[in-house]
Design a protein that fits this description.
There is one protein chain. This protein has about 280 residues and is α/β, with parallel strands linked by helices. It has a single domain, classed as NAD(P)-binding Rossmann-like Domain (Rossmann fold), CATH 3.40.50.720. The chain contains eleven helices and seven strands. Strands 3-2-1-4-5-6-7 form a seven-stranded parallel β-sheet, with helices on both faces. Helix 3 (about 70-85) packs parallel to helix 4 and helix 4 (about 110-135) runs parallel beside helix 5.
Length: about 280
């Protein structure tokens, strides 16, 4: 799909989780279109590095430490974006912490942490920046990062999958509610990536919740349950963002970044359609 090179020019992209991996790659994509960048991450040092790379290439960028579970830090970032760049035209609510483990092993603290960050963090992010989007002119878009796990669930990642189902439902409704304002909303569905996701998740977990436990067995069992070849399902962050700009310009409802799981989708939706058809029987 060809990219409308004028679609993003002159705008400002705000990206959470911008310190590394997928978020940092998204930043670079927007920066190539001469967008101003607001790089946000709970890891302040890495957010600064992302912004510095943009500035070193001749672009405009700022960074801030933001904890998406804390709406006040997001509101401060929104104020900075408005004061320095005059607003926000693309918002990437890109955050997600991971906690592996069988459902009966997950603690209430595990659940609250994952849901507070992944679900409420997304809600806080949109609530903080939506007023700026509404004030801005031209093309405006919100990107909400869900996960391939919301399409192809597997065992041992129940808290994460539940959170990403919720994020997907939130984004579906957000797209409907903002359509009349010409603010696009796309649901981003990445599969596994060669990033610091597991490491950054562990580091972001509050100390009072104890150390985040990850067992190799959980990952192996999860991959087997999803019938996925890790060689096809895991990609670099740059590969995963290769179609991002064109898909946003086209206001695509769903953006699947990579991974081959079409047959799984077919089987799932065939069962849903059969259930629907059974409900029509008198």
């Amino acid at each position: 799909m060809p990219l409308d090179t004028e679609y993003f020019r002159g705008g400002t992209a705000v990206v959470t989780g911008a310190g590394s991996g997928f978020g940092a790659s998204m930043v670079q994509r927007f920066a190539t279109e001469n967008m101003a960048i607001v790089a946000l991450d709970i890891d302040e040092g890495r957010a600064k590095e992302t912004a510095q790379r943009v500035r070193d290439a001749g672009g405009r960028a700022i960074s801030m430490r933001v904890d998406v579970a804390d709406h006040s830090s997001l509101e401060a970032a929104a104020s900075a974006a408005y004061e320095i760049f005059g607003g926000c035209t693309v918002l990437c609510a890109n955050v997600g912490v991971q906690q592996f483990g069988a459902l009966d092993r997950l603690t209430e603290q595990d659940w609250r942490w994952v849901l507070d960050v992944n679900v409420m963090g997304t809600v806080h992010t949109v609530n903080a920046f939506l007023p700026l989007l509404r004030k801005s002119s031209g093309h405006r878009h919100i990107v909400v990062t869900s996960s391939a796990a919301a399409l192809t669930p597997g065992v041992r990642m129940g808290a994460y999958t539940t959170s990403k189902y919720a994020v997907m439902g939130y984004a579906e409704t957000l797209r409907m509610e903002l359509a009349s304002e010409d603010i696009g909303v796309s649901i981003l569905l990445p599969a596994g990536m060669i990033t610091r996701h597991l490491e950054s998740s562990a580091l972001a977990r509050p100390a009072d919740l104890g150390k985040s436990e990850m067992r190799r067995e959980d990952i192996d069992v999860m991959m087997a349950s999803r019938k996925m070849d890790s060689a096809d399902h895991v990609a670099s962050a740059d590969h995963a963002t290769r179609h991002l700009l064109a898909d946003l310009a086209a206001n695509e409802r769903y953006i699947i970044t990579h991974g081959e799981y079409r047959q799984s989708l077919v089987e799932t939706y065939q069962q849903i359609l059969r259930a629907h058809d059974r409900a029509q029987d008198e």
